[in-house]
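Human:
Take a look at this sequence-structure pair and walk me through the C-alpha cells.
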Amino acid sequence: MKNIIVLICHYNNLEGLEKSLLSIQEDFPVDVLVVDDGSIQKPNLEHLKAIYKNGTIFLNLLPENVGVGIATNIGLKKIIELGYTLTGRLDCGDINHPNRYKKQLEYLAQKSEIKLLGTWVNMVDMHGNIVFVLKHPTTYKQIKSKMYINNAFMNSASIFYIEILKEVGYFPEKYHRNGEDYAFFFKVIQKYRAENLPEVLLDYEINPNSISSQRRKEQIIARISIIKDHFYFGFYPVFGILRNLTLLFVPQSIIIYLKKKFKK
C-alpha cells in the first residue's frame, strides 16, 4: 500500500492551486491528485509536474462543473484505485506549514485507534495576515459534543485512513455544495475515534469569493439539517440548532470581527 496522497479540487484558481502545491514541504514523498471541476482555466499536467517536486502528481479533468462534493468523491474513488492508505483535502489557496503531514503521520503512528486527524489553523486574509487562530477541540470526547455546535474539523487540515470509507461511505452528495465535509466528519465520528493536533499547521485563506462566503446562508441551513440528522435531546444539539438559527441573521463580517477580537 502507498502511504499518503493529497486531494485538491480545483475550480478557476490556478494561482491558489500553485500556492498550495508549493506549500507541501516534507522530507518524504507526498503524492497529489488534482481534480479539476470543469474550470475554464484548466491546469496543465506537465506544468504541475514541473513545479511540484515533493511527490507524484495526478490530474483528473472533469468535463463539467459538478460541485466540490461530487468532485471530491470522484477523487476518492480514484485514490482507492491507486491503492493509498491515507488521504486528505487541501483547498486551493490554503498553505501547509512545513512538515505538517510528517507531524500528523507520526501522531497517527503512535495512536492506531485514531482514524481521522485534524490540526489547528491560522485564519488569514487575502494578504496573508492572521485574522484569528481557529483552535478546534482536540479530544474525541470534546469533538463528539461540539460537532453539534459547529464543524470540529477544518477540511484542509484533516487527513484520514481510506479504509473508513468502506464503513461511512463518501462525502454525502445531498450536501455536495453546502456542508458535505461537515456531514462526512459527523458520520466518521459516529464510527471511529478522531482528534485534532493542538498545533497550527495550516493557513486557511478567508476569501470573499469562495463558496463558503458566497453561499453562507445556504450552508448554515444545511448545517442545521445535518445536526437534525444526528439529533438527540441534550444541551449540545439544542444549543447547536439555536446558535445556527441565530447565525442566519448575523452578517459574516460581524462574526469575523468578533472572532478576531475575542480570540486574540
